[in-house]
Amino acid sequence: MLRQDPRSTRLDSRAARTGRVRAATPRPDQTPLVCLPCPFLDHALEAARKAGAEHIIDARAQDPVEAIRELTKGGAPVSIDALGIAETCVNSVRSLRKRGRHVQIGHTTRAEAGYVPLPIDEILLNELELYGAFGIQGQRYGTMLAMCEAGTLDPGALVSRTVGLDGVTGVLEDMGRYDMTGIVAIDFKLDA
Question: Biased-composition ranges for Low complexity (predicted)?
């Protein structure tokens, strides 16, 4: 799906949880990772730094589209939005260079109710591709597990905290407020 030149920059417009996934994913080509974290969460900026983003753009301090276009000398070839709010989705699409690809992996919020107004003329004139992705494809699990076994992929780097089953309600509440980063693991032994 991402079919990109190994020298190209990847733009991740998302919450820090997915940023950790990207940073934990091996990049043998060492393409730069640019994070445009959630524009209203300070902890997402810090999590992006810890996750290994080479460049972090704070959308509150500068126009994120202009910043990406300047940093990438014309726009990113690939962008990903995992937050699902209109602002990050549109900024992600508008940050692409001609013939770029946007991957949407974040569900919309109640405010968007499944609909995000996109810059159709830019998509058409720049021949952009838009993809939706929900989870990893079943046939890719073998490759992923082999990477874990070889030590090139560290799923533990994605876990920000571990809770027992009695802590799940609090985690869901945090998710509803975008008040968390990383992945929360549930350890059933903690309740015993």
Answer: 16-27
Q: Containing domain of residue 36, as a range? A: 10-132
Model confidence over 47-95: pLDDT tens digits? Answer: 777 777 788 888 888 899 999 999 899 999 999 988 888 998 999 999 9
- 66 falls within a domain: yes
Report if pTM > 0.70. Answer: yes
CA atoms of 177 and 109, how far apart (whole Å):
11
C-alpha to C-alpha distance for 18 and 20, rounded to whole angstroms: 5
Q: Quick one: DSSP state of residue 157?
A: G
What's the whole-number mean pLDDT along residues 178-191? 81
Q: What is the CATH number of the domain that holds 100?
A: 3.40.50.720
Report how far residue 26's alpha carbon sits from residue 153's, in angstroms, rounded to the nearest whole number.
Answer: 6
Strands lying side by side in the sheet with 129-132: 55-56, 33-35, 10-13, 76-81, 96-104, 129-132
Q: Does 124 reside within a domain?
A: yes
Q: What is the pLDDT of residue 3?
A: 45
The tally of domains found in the chain comes to 1
